[in-house]
Amino acid sequence: MNLVMMGTGSFAEPTFRKLLESPHRVVGLVTQPDRATGKERGSTRQPRQGMKEIALERGIPVLQPESINTPDGAAALKALVPDLLVVAAYGQILSKDILAVPSLGGINVHASLLPKYRGAAPINWAIYHGETQSGVTIIRMTIGLDAGDMLAQEAIDILPEETAGELEARLGPLGAHLAIETVDKLAVGPVSGIPQDKSKVTKAPKLTKEHGLIDWSRPASAVVNQIRAMQPWPTAYTHLHRDGHEPLRLIVQRAAITLKVPCPAGISGAAFADDTKLLARCGDGTWVEILELQPAGKRRMPAHDFLRGNAIPPDAHFR
Questions:
Q1: Confidence of residue 279 (pLDDT cuts 50, 70, 90)
Q2: What is the DSSP string of 232-295?
Q3: What is the CA radius of gyration of the chain?
Q4: Which of 54, 162, 227, 248 could hold 240 in an S-S bridge, CB 3.0 to 4.6 Å?
């Protein structure tokens, strides 16, 4: 069977490699255009070898249109004569005309337990909302956003301190396994799917840098989940305010809820520090310990290193 892979980023790479190892013929790769930032690929923007580099090593034609949903895009895809599209984190919604090019249509490798978390950033939003499970669903592609019938699905537990990047690294191989199983079945004959329950649909929109701004009025558990969810991109951040100093932007890399409350009073975002620990008060009256951070223009460091050169006076707060 002739396959065209459509994908970008570290979640898609295991599926691409699995297809290349299969008896099926990968006749082309459609991936996002090269960007100035180079290594920022995919939903969590983790650098790996890159889809394009893998394809070029194997002599596989590569298409990188700004939009595949154009007459030129459709013509280039038709020239590859695909039987099936295999899509994973491609970053573009495919039109009806594109889905009609291959004789068997397309399947999508989606990093969530659909119908929950349809959209561009399902891994991040699952962690953000405190889910304890995630997984991969293989769906038959339709013109609706992640709305097709489910052909395969498998769940895994989200580990308590796991970041979005770490979870993605576990979901990528799982997606590859389910994808090749589904491709093998489609090569033999029709595969029936299960319709998604529309009443259970939730959204997972594309992340922006603004999603990383920490709102300290939220409960401590929600703040810690946000910090995990924004790793490795766009990262969670806040600003440290101290009298006599310009606000200092801090990327919060790692944090945990602490039960050792230094004082019961204080506003949301109140900062407290001793010689080794940096704490922030949350809206539910509990505290978060900031374990690792990166001040603007500086390297990533443990909180105790930051405290060596940065006093935290009683009126200091995060916002």
A1: very high
A2: TTT-EEEEEE-TTS--EEEEEEEEEEES--S-S---TTBEEE-SS-EEEE-TTS-EEEEEEEEE
A3: 22
A4: 248
Assign residue 281 the CATH number of its domain: 3.10.25.10
From CA 72, how far away is CA 85, in angstroms rounded?
17
Whether residue 117 sits in one domain with residue 72: yes
- For residue 6, the Cα-to-chain-centroid distance in whole angstroms is 17
φ/ψ (deg, to 5) at 77: -70, -45
- The first and second tokens of residue 223, run together, are 């703040």
Confidence (pLDDT) at 275:
79
153-189 confidence digits (pLDDT tens): 999 999 999 999 999 999 999 999 999 999 999 999 9
- Domain endpoint, select from 152, 168, 200: 200
Total count of domains within the chain? 2
Last residue in a domain, options 150, 175, 200:
200
Say if residue 69's pLDDT is above 50.
yes
Q: Is the dihedral of CA 173, 176, 178, 181 positive or negative?
A: negative
Q: What's 16's domain CATH number?
A: 3.40.50.170
Residues 33 and 126 in one domain: yes
- pLDDT mean over 143-152: 96
Query: What angle separates helix 164-188 from helix 13-21, to the nearest 10 degrees?
Result: 30
| Co-location of 49 and 74 in the same domain | yes
Question: What are the pLDDT digits (tens) for 117-130?
Answer: 999 999 999 999 99
Look up the domain containing 311 and give its range.
209-318
Nearest alpha carbon to residue 240 among 317, 150, 134? 317
Beta-bridge mates of residue 117? none
Same domain, 284 and 262: yes
